[in-house]
Amino acid sequence: MAASNPCTLTEVASDADFANHTNNLPESSTLVIYFHAPWAEPCKQMSTVLSTLASTYTATSPPTISFLALDAEELSDVSEHYDVTQVPYIVIQKAGKVLETISGGDASRVRAAVEKHVGSGSGNAGGAGLPPAQLVNKPEGGNAKNLSSYAPSTNDQTTAPEYSASEANPETSKEELNNRLGELVKAAPVMLFMKGTPSAPQCGFSRQT
């Protein structure tokens, strides 16, 4: 039995090629359109991500999913039709209807969006290069520190230790400077760095405190 071929990310070079591809795609097929630009650094990674993602799906006839890549500047009419204002920009559509758009280089969002509308790929080796989807959960209970109601105790310093330019030694070593910085950030649980002094602040934000 012959091995099935994986899908690929196909580069579209002209408006006519794009129209020909979309017109011949069955309404049951999902189309992933990737807008990129050669000068945009995030597009280099996204091109690799989408090529890898495409390879996890099997090429069928008629296709169940198709991946197209377009230069957003070269195919400006297509870009304008999809309201592309930045790259990378991915459009997922079916039967001519846009299902979802993703802007930016978040690979996990792109994969999650494709799998939501199409289902996961075959899980072959090509998928190993995709970054895993990540979920960030808000800490529960009282584990997270809330400083909104913090009030310094009588033992806490109200301001950072004072160091003026006139006291600085021209021969002060880098290690001594690092020690001073360490003392500053550890002086109190909440630290305010300001321009001037507490009695004579020299910028608008400092005066508001």
TrEMBL record:
Gene3D superfamilies: Glutaredoxin (3.40.30.10)
Entry protein name: Glutaredoxin
Domain Thioredoxin: 1-119
Cellular component, GO annotation: cytosol; nucleus
Gene Ontology MF term list: 2 iron, 2 sulfur cluster binding
GO biological process: intracellular iron ion homeostasis
Listed Gly residues bias regions: 120-129
Matches recorded under PANTHER family: GLUTAREDOXIN FAMILY MEMBER (PTHR10293), GLUTAREDOXIN-3 (PTHR10293:SF73)
Naturally occurring in which organism (per UniProt): Aureobasidium melanogenum (Aureobasidium pullulans var. melanogenum)
Composition skew (Polar residues), residue ranges: 145-171
Lineage: Eukaryota, Fungi, Dikarya, Ascomycota, Pezizomycotina
Region annotation Disordered: where it falls in the sequence: 118-176
PROSITE patterns referenced in this protein's UniProt entry, alphabetically: THIOREDOXIN_2 (PS51352)
